[in-house]
Records
---
Amino acid sequence: MESQKQFKRRFSFEFFPPKTDQGREKLQTVRDRLAEVHPDFFSVTFGAGGSTRDRTIETVLNLHSQGISTAPHLSCVGGTRKSIAELLDIYRESGVNRIVALRGDLPSGMGASGELRYANELVAFIREHSGDTFNLEVAAYPEFHPQARNAEEDLKNFARKVEAGANSAITQYFFNADSYFYFIDRLEKMNITIPVVPGIMPIVNFSSLVRFSDMCGAEIPRWIRKQLEAYGDDSDSIRKFGEEVVTRMCERLLAAGAPGLHFYTLNQAEASLNIWNNLGLANRDKISF
Ligand code: FAD
């Protein structure tokens, strides 16, 4: 973990672009609450295809104009070099300076995979088109990407994104801090020393967590799964237990030198803020984790 200790910690909150006016109003309230704790940036996810793409742009530009730096996620799957270049130009002209560059996943049934096949090709294309305009974040998978040929290949593929010009990474969420520590050790042995910020998923709803985790390949350890299962419909106990488990994991991560945290908020303020407050991050400059 030594390589990670040299980086200034940064804290960020991720949103998805709302579909309805009601969703937009809700996100504004969530944004206002989270802005009070002064995160380093917000980020907004991206879905391949026309309308979701436009919603990401709209949400990013709206949030960015309100004073907290906002990073769009941008995936290359299903896109063309031309369509990606247009997006990059829109963001550059609006003063956006950070992009989360991803391959993305096509919704099932959507045909062609696009001109750029993997995130390393997207990173290279962004550097070619926009030079150093953007700070580029890429995805990292301490428990390995579900489609990787094997763990070693996945690490090599991560290295490709760094070689192509990624500045830092955000991980898929995990509930097992050791997978993150081991991942960082492996990167250090490969002489990869960019900041790798843990992605944190607050636990608020058991069934959606299971569905989501199955999809993205994140493991819910048996002891957590069993305990959540036992709470059944008791959502208060699920939240309380989830908050405790995730707070403890974050404490371990920060104490070991993780260079910040990135919260998958799912457009809800409460759960992330509770963890934030438990960690004492309001006074984060004074904390000696
Ligand atoms: P890549 O790094 O390209 O890797 C994808 C797979 O291909 C891996 O198995 C890898 O080992 C393999 N691979 C990579 N390069 C090569 C190569 N050159 N040759 C052979 N195999 C290779 N998805 C969205 O749709 N929208 C979002 O906004 C979004 N945000 C995310 C944010 C974060 C922080 C994370 C961790 C994930 C996010 N995702 C998002 C999910 C992500 O798009 C998926 O996990 C996707 O399947 C992989 O994207 P990637 O950028 O990691 O792809």
---
Amino acid sequence: MASGGIEPRKLSVFGSTGSIGKNTLDVIEQVGGREFFEVLALTGNSNTELLAEQAKASGAKLAVTADADRYQSLKDALSGSGIAVAAGESGLMEAADLDAEWVMAGIVGTAGLAPTLAAARKGADIALANKECLVSAGEIFVQAVHAGGGRLIPVDSEHSAIFQALEEDQRHALERIILTASGGPFRTWTREEMAGVTVEVARAHPNWSMGLKISIGSASMFNKALEMIEAKHLFDVEPDQIEVIVHPQSIIHSMVGYRDGSVLAQLGAPDMRTAIGYALTYPLRPNLTVERLDFAKLARLDFEAPDTERFPALRLARTALERGGLQGAVMNAAEETAFSAFVEERITFLQMADIVEAVMEKMTGHSPATNIEEVFAADAEARRKAGEQISKVSART
Ligand code: NAD
Ligand code: MG
């Protein structure tokens, strides 16, 4: 059972059936389980069988499938359990409306924005895996967390590392943040070699086991591109204070550089449970059974400058950072659309970046969003324009 001052909390896990969600339930179990934490809501999408199992095992009050067509199957799977069932967007909002003190934002993509924003407004501490909330709606999302009175605790391993290394009373001396990137499966590949890759090859990450979207994003480095924008909003830094360094072993999860030349890093085995655990019990640290680093076995840590020619996503992130406003929402929506087209084999791996760039160039004229509806409108327009680009490209090939 949890000890050492760790508080029992009422919590919800959005996206519990995914890679982050499963790891979160494992961490909750390791820290004290259902006798210690009160699980309010779990949400999933198509995998209602797993969702029902998780809800029963954790003693959740409410289970929500985002897929409205799966309502009956979830209801059947939970009949007689006493666990309430809801579905669709309204079901997700019902989950967000419960009085959780801590919410894991583990839904993938822009689909996570509305429920996570609602939970933030209600004042829950937000453990943020869903980086898209900040990429699309950075200022609005951060404001919502402040207005709600909860804390925003990063779960993305890089941002968790920076959060851990960035002492609040040292902010005056912060010079730069250095995001590490594994470089993904194509780190040493030429563009010619990347041109014809399949989804199966692109999703095979060398170090981390993750959901499909982020695995493909690691191969294209669009994941790092999103993380650069995520970092800007989390740590309130200027674009030129955000650096990326390729570090193939994924042992240093990221670093903070100070004006006296010191660099603080957070290291660990590539296992998301460390970052999830830190977000769950912050500012305390839980006892976790993750692998310990054996430095003698590791022997070396390597670093390389990132290559923006082979990985244009990094260049596009710089452009989006410099333009500000709704460019994050535009880049993110175009990338989600291009990602789906790649998975459906309608475009090639390299065409993803071409499409994102084309959409960003068509939508440069946006001033900063003043409300979330403007973000959703820019998101929808970027998806439409990406769809047009995809049709053009796939007609040619
Ligand atoms: P995943 O695909 O494994 O899981 C996604 C979850 O979202 C599932 O529970 C799924 O049911 C749910 N979902 C999917 N579509 C939905 C929709 N339309 N509406 C509501 N729910 C929906 O993804 P993941 O790898 O766990 O990633 C989740 C988020 O965490 C992403 O934003 C990702 O970038 C971020 N993240 C993941 C990792 C990792 O190790 N997996 C690391 C850092 C950050
Ligand atoms: Mg990351």
